[in-house]
Each structure stands twice: as C-alpha cells, then as structure tokens.
Amino acid sequence: MDLSFIIINYNTTALTLACIGSVYRFTKDNTFEVILIDNASADRSILEVKALYPDVIFLELSENVGFGGANNLGIAHANGKYLFLLNSDTLLTSDAASVFFKFMEEERHKQVGCCGAALIDGDGHDQISYGNFPSLKEAFSALGFLRLYPGYYRTKLSSGVKNHSEETRTVDYICGADMFLRKTVLETTGCFDPDFFLYFEEVELSLRIKKAGYLSVILPKVKIIHYESASLGGSLLNIQKAKYLARSRYLYFKKSRGMLSAMLINKVYALQALVFFIVKQKLSYLKIAGILFRA
Fold it and tell me: Where are the domains of the chain?
C-alpha cells in the first residue's frame, strides 16, 4: 500500500466527515487506507463515519491520550509506505498525496523525512504552515525587539510561519496539521513523544528527524485548508490554549535544551503577556501571564 491517512477526531464530527470526504474525493493516483482515531469524544455522532465510510479503519479510545498519543496508535496500525497525518479540521483541495508521494519517491529526495503543504483558511488566506525550531532568541524577540528586525525574525526565528513563497524548500518543521512522513524514518527516530499532550509534539519529532540526518520540506504549490484549533472551541479558548502551550513549551525546552532553558522560557513569555496586558488592557493577558509564571 502506498500510504496511510491518519486522522484524529475529538468532538469535531462534522469537520472530520468533511476531511475524510476530501480524502476520498481527491486521492486518485495511489493505493491508500484511512485510519480514524477517536480520542474519547463526548460527541458520539462520530459513529456516523462507520455508516458513511465503511472502509475507514476506526479506532476508538476510552480516554483522550492527546494528539501525539492518538497518532502513535494510528501509526502502529498503518500499512502504508508513507504516513499522511491530517488534522480533522483540514480539507484537501487537490490530490496532495500524489504530489507528496512522487516527490518522496525521487532518488534525489531520499533524505527527506517529512513534507507538507502551504496551509490556508477557508477564504484562501495564508495560515501557519511551518516554523523554525523554538529558541530563547525568538522568545526575547517577542518582547518587542522583533520590530528592529522583522524580516530576520519571520524567516530565521519565528516558530510559526505563514508561507509567502512558491519555492519548494527545506524548513525546520512542518505544521502537525499535514505531515507526510516516510514511515521508515520513524523506525529510526521513534514516533511522537507521548509526554506531549497537545502542541510542540510535531516540533520535537521534527528535531529528532533532523538529528537523524533527514530533512523536512514544504511544497507550497500544494494548498490545504486548515480551520485552526477547531477542537478547542468555546469562550475560554485563549486560556485553555495557554495552559497547553505553557506545559508543552516547557517540555520541549527541557528535552531539547535543558532544564535551565525550560525554566526561563515560560517566564519570558509570561513577561510578554504582562506587556500585552498593560498595552491592551485585556484581562485575559493577565490570566495567561499567571499561568505562565506558575508553569
């Protein structure tokens, strides 16, 4: 089998059904399977998938094990030579799998471990598609110093970058919303670190991929729609997201750069949140600062 699509659902039934529908609509040139993991959703309507798409391999979890943990389960069941990890809030707009497959099959690209698309929203506006590995330089720049070197910050420091070029190129990591992975690479690097519940899991995996001598490449001619953070939802979105980000950012720096960097990083972002609170007078920034100072 050429590839395995792996999709994680968490209370996003309508989006998940649309995502799966786009996979079957556009994927024509490769043999494939679709593996859907339900991460203990409260929304039982996900069972509609079984009726509408009987060929989908449906794995149901009794507890939410996070993005990486659920993907690891899907990877363990995958039969494809390549793994196409798609967020449930994405939509294919073309036969992306065929483009990625042909690219990865070329001999000159044998050191590419992961590739991905340029992500856009439903109106065609650019979304974060890739990034540089997070660093203390990025964190300190975010305090306001980036105004002195915006171009350098955007291209060399920012851990979340919107694509503005049609050039195929090597990047530090591909956004976890659409990772097309060479399965044999994961046999060397291992899969997602289960310590990460949400956020930074794809960054940490990509760092291991790079250390193993493989590349991550963005193919901007492929466009995929991404409705970001759809599974979080609700009025407490920013606070909930801040909690996940704080913990995962700390873990990433602890694992990749050591305890001292991990202790420092959230404090820097807490200071940034305080600055935003002073400037914008929004209470949510003060709450976020409190979360980060305690992290």
Answer: 3-226, 237-294
Look up residue 271 and give its amino acid. Answer: L
The type of residue at 212 is A
What average pLDDT does this structure show over 158-170? 96
Average pLDDT for 249-264: 94
> b/e per residue, 203-213, with b = 16+ CB within 10 A?
bbbbbbbbeee
CA separation for the pair 291, 286 (Å, rounded): 9
Give the mean pLDDT of the chain.
Answer: 91
The Cα 57–Cα 264 span in angstroms is: 43
Give the separation between CA 59 and CA 266, rounded to whole angstroms.
35
Give the residue among 155, 153, 133, 129 at the shortest CA–CA distance from 143.
153
CA 208 to chain centre: 15
Phi, psi for 284 (deg, rounded to 5): -60, -35
Length of the chain equals: 295
Cα dihedral across residues 109, 112, 115, 118: positive or negative: negative
Angle between helices 237-257 and 201-211 (to 10 degrees): 20
User: What tens digit of pLDDT does each residue of 201-253 get?
Assistant: 999 999 999 999 999 999 999 999 999 765 555 444 467 788 888 899 999 99
Q: Give backbone dihedrals phi and psi of 36, rounded to 5 degrees, phi first.
A: -115, 125
pLDDT score at 48: 85
Closest of 85, 37, 26, 30 to residue 61, by C-alpha: 37
Per CATH, the number for 3-226 is 3.90.550.10
Measured distance CA(25)–CA(43) in Å, rounded: 25
**DSSP-based three-state secondary structure for 75:** helix
Cα gap 270→253, rounded to integer Å: 16
Identify whether the C-beta of residue 109 lies closer than 8 Å to the C-beta of residue 103.
yes
Look at the pTM and tell me if it is higher than 0.85.
Answer: yes
Rg (CA), the chain: 19
